[in-house]
Amino acid sequence: MTNNPPDQSSQAANHETKRIPLAIDPNFMKTTSSALPTDQSDDNDKSQNGTHQNATTGQSLVNNPYEMFGSMPLDQLIPVILQSRGIGSKFADLSERVLSEEIANDAEDMEHVKNLDEDVEMDSSDFPANADQEALKPQQIEGPLAREEEDQMTQEQFQQLKNSTVQSLNLSVNEASLALEFVSLLLSSVRPSAANASMSPFLKNAVPTASLNAEKIPYEKATESEIVDKKLTTRGWKLRSLEESRVLLKDTHKTLEASLRKEQNYWSKVSANTSKKDVIFKMKDQETGEKSLGLKYGYEDSGSSYKQERGIAILRYNANKDALEAVPAEKQQFESMNRGPFEKFMRVRIFTKIQEEDDYILSGETALDDLLLAADNSGAEQNIRRQISKLQFLIFEKELMYHLKKESETLISYGVTLENENKITVEFPTEKIEFEMMNLTDEVILNHQQDAPKTNDRKAALILVMLRMLLVVMYKKQIRKKLLMVAHSKAVHPFDNEALLLRPIMGKFRHENYLNLLQKVIKTYVLDVVANSVVTEIPSDYRKQNIPVRRETYDKHITKLDDEITLFDKILQLPRIDLKVELPGSGKIEFGLESSNYCNATTSVKLVDASNATIFDTRFSNFKELEDFLHFIVSEYVTEGKQE
Amino acid sequence: MSDKGLLEQLNRTTETLSHSLTNLIRYASISTEKDDEEHGAQELPESTSKTSTGGLMMVSGQTAQLIRGIQDLMVMTRNIREKWVLTQIPDEKADSQQELEMAKCADLLEEWSKAVLGKI
According to its UniProt record, which protein family does this protein belong to (chain A) (predicted)? Predict the structure, then answer.
């Protein structure tokens, strides 16, 4: 690197350049080197001519006349050219021919220079200078091309090489300056003045001097025992952590195995004890917060419309008993609301009136259902199916009571009293029937087991069974209604949507009583008066009329349902009986006893004379009136006629 | 979750399981440590604090991962069981509901009326 300023002597500068045949455009040098701030600042300090900073930096790398002159404006360049060509020469004299001659001379000159060393310089002061001036341009344009041809190198390869060279140079300059900075900084703590001289201003500004220090630390090779020691500690730690891991894994394994076993038991029990008929779904156990399975034991899907209780139990696994437990989801909530015990069942009691006394005696009582008995004797309590059955039984009983209560509200005028929310009493002339929800407690169970059999036990049981069956019939009707579209379900029966539990049964009793009464009346007013008269019951074709026409288009399930429902028509139909009293010689009287709502009674009386002409056809809802009327017609038409 | 989802989850879980187990075993081995020393920081055991904290963290981390993986698998079995129980409970002895004999039932009902009314 030469740092000669060109102003010192153009001659000397020219000579320098002459010795370096430029193969590359120094402009590249200039641009790349300008990227180094340290160089720039260094050079700035030293170079006096600073017309153009780039130019000076370019000079600092190589003495490059072309770059200097090339960047000159023409009005400066021409005087320089003239000056270098010597005094007296004119710019106008310069021509291509003259210049090429000069180049040729220059080539010779070069050889001269080689042979004679510096001697040629003496020959003329202007010529060589002139020559090199002119020689620069051709060399730059033509020289490289010529070489390229010689070296069989393509332009691209050349460019590549050039670029890489420039880059490497750039890099090395950069690295070197960095190294210089580093050393300077390091030195600044001991020899500030020397360091300051070589430090770049940027570094001086950015880093305080004497801020870097270095010291030599001798490397002590670890002794054998130390290495062994360290290894031991390492392995110790390793062992310890592995041990911890082992313990952790073992503990987890234990707990997981336990829960896995529990899970396994649970699911095998579920699979063993549930069937397609069960409604099972995912559910969260509110008590324990675990994910669990819910089981529906309510009758909602079977047609029940009972909404007081959802009828859902959680299938819970009891690890102690190794058994499944069905816990009603609402049990806790129910009991916490102080609504009495969750488990209730219905008991039917029959009281018979003591003659001549205004008191009743218990004559019949329903027994406890087997399901309700504590099954500790057989161990069947363990069985989940039994538990489910029990739950089903209990909810059924509750629903039964619910509907009974609703139904009895309308029957108050017929001797039905709602004594409290758990008790309904139905009074008949000779007896009283009590429907009561009993809390399922051990005491109740014990009392029932000790009870002695009574005369009306069977009757009470039959009534209770019929009540249950009628509720099932209600379910079935509901299902049928759902199955048939709304359009089809024109109410076949007026009581289709109502609760029909107590009324049909009450109707049976009341009808029987009315019938007895009617027969008594007939006996007193007809049979006893008219000789040889006979009462006969006319077999009724009433049932036949009521059987709906079988619709063949129905699904077989609906047909089956229909059959099952019509089976109960005998029970559910409104009671009716027809009696005929034959009056020898004077026609007959036909009686029809029927009820429009199971509980009341209307009697139709039809008097037909011997010539088969109807004389009277009336209805009575009052037996007193009926008596009077009978008395009248018998005396008026039958006995009168006979006397005549 | 679909069957495909379950399968994917199974693959994922088993992979993490084997991965963490491998890591644990690799860490536990001493011979590999020697290999490292031969061409690594020769004769220079790692610092105590590094081995202790690093080892502990790594071992406990991998162990936790192992455990979590197993737990995941168990949750999966639970899921599968729920799927099963909610979709296909085995059929139990065909239709156990016997056919009603209509005539007989009618007779029984007739009998009921008589019994209740005290005609028998």
Answer: Belongs to the Mediator complex subunit 17 family.
User: Looking at residue A39, what is its pLDDT?
Assistant: 43
CB contact under 8 A, A293 and B74: no
Q: Cα–chain-centroid distance for residue B26?
A: 28
Are A413 and A553 contained in the same domain?
no
Mark whether A324 and A457 lie in a shared domain: yes
Distance from CA of A387 to the nearest CA of B (A): 19
The nearest CA of chain A is from the CA of B33 a distance in Å of 10
Pair (B73, B114) in one structural domain:
no
Domain end position, chosen among A428, A449, A483: A483
> Are B10 and B44 in the same domain?
yes
A245 contact residues in B (CB cutoff 8 A): 24, 59-60, 62-63
Q: Which residues of A touch B44 (CB under 8 A)?
A: 222, 227
B103 touches chain A (CB under 8 A): no
Cβ atoms of residues A273 and A363 within 8 Å: no
> Does residue A357 lie within any of the structural domains?
yes
Inspect the interface and report whether the beta carbons of B90 and A271 lie closer than 8 Å: yes
Handedness of CA A111, A112, A118, A122 (dihedral sign): negative
Q: In this complex, is the C-beta atom of B71 within 8 Å of any C-beta atom belonging to chain A?
A: yes
Q: Report the number of distinct structural domains present in chain B.
A: 2
- Of the CA atoms within 13 Å of residue A447, those in its CB half-sphere come to 10
Partner-chain residue, chosen from A249, A275, A571, that has the shortest CB–CB distance to B63: A249
Neighbours of A418 (CB within 10 A): 15
Q: Do A458 and A411 have their domain in common?
A: yes
Q: Nearest to residue A57, comparing CAs of A47, A65, A72, A70?
A: A47
Same domain, A340 and A449: yes
A231 neighbourhood in chain B, CB within 8 Å: 45
Residues A396 and A434 placed together within one structural domain of the fold: yes
Are B117 and A238 an interchain contact pair (Cβ–Cβ within 8 Å)? no
**Mind listing the pLDDT tens digit for each residue in A52-78?**
444 444 444 555 566 666 677 777 777
Is beta strand A312-318 parallel, antiparallel or unpaired with respect to A323-328?
antiparallel
Domain residue limits at B115:
92-120
Asked if residue B109 and residue B62 are part of one domain, the reply reads no
Residues 8-67 of B with CB under 8 A from A: 24, 27-28, 30, 33, 43-46, 48, 51-52, 55-56, 58-60, 62-64, 66-67
Count of Cβ atoms closer than 10 Å to residue B44 Cβ: 12
- CA distance to partner chain B, nearest, from residue A248 (Å): 8
* Cα distances (angstroms) measured from residue B36 to each of A220, B42, B46: 22, 8, 11
Chain A CA closest to residue B71: A256
- Residues 592..631 of A with a Cβ closer than 8 Å to B: which? none
Looking at the fold, whether B26 and B63 belong to one and the same domain comes out as yes
A332 and A476 belong to one structural domain = yes
Find, among A603, A599, A589, the residue nearest to A634 by Cα: A589
Domain membership of residue A435 as a residue range: 280-483
CB B62 within 8 A of CB B20: yes
**Mean pLDDT in consecutive groups of 10 residues from the start of chain A, 644 residues:** 43 46 48 42 43 42 60 74 73 78 78 54 46 47 50 83 95 92 86 82 82 82 80 80 87 90 84 75 78 82 77 79 76 62 81 81 80 56 74 86 86 85 85 85 71 80 88 85 61 54 84 87 82 77 51 68 79 82 80 83 84 82 85 77 53
Same domain for A469 and A367:
yes
In a shared domain, residues B83 and B119 = no
Condensed to tens digits (0 to 9), the pLDDT of residues A272-322 reads: 777 777 778 888 877 777 788 888 888 877 777 777 777 888 888 777 777
Domain co-membership, B47 together with B100: no
